[in-house]
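Suppose a colleague, Dr. K., hands you the sequence of a protein chain of 154 amino acids and asks what its three-dimensional shape might be. Before reaching for any lab equipment, you can write down a predicted structure in token form. Begin with the sequence itself:
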Amino acid sequence: MAETNIDRLTMRAPIAGVILQNKVRLGQFAQCGPLSEPLMILGSVTPLHVRVDVDEHDAWRVRGGALAAASPRGNGSIRIPLEFVRFEPYVIPKKSLTGDSTERVDTRVLQVIYRVKDQNASLYVGQQMDVYIKTPDAVNPPRQGSESTAGHGQ
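The predicted structure, expressed as tokens, is then:
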């Protein structure tokens, strides 16, 4: 009977994954129902994916299957190859505002999902990156010093 009670009161993860953030401790009361901040974040880290926000003004330039590379913020010398996965078909309001005086607050972004090809790259879940997406020459004539469109990924 004790084993049955322990089994009933044991919480198990609905998926196989890694605990990315833990804000609850052993013996702490966990409130039921929706919370403003989750007590624990669980996710899969293999393979790593990058969600790229492409400004709506550049969205027409991005094509499915386009080659892309990512650089961790602060180190543009590192280029990590990315593989196209899919587009999120709904263009959403931009959430990450830089505060630049020329930046419009009503901008919308197309989200593009890429998979990190090098799973041994020194990256962390939630890390912000600069992403460079190759655009076809017919769509984007080459300009001096610019061959791709940049997006910001996480």
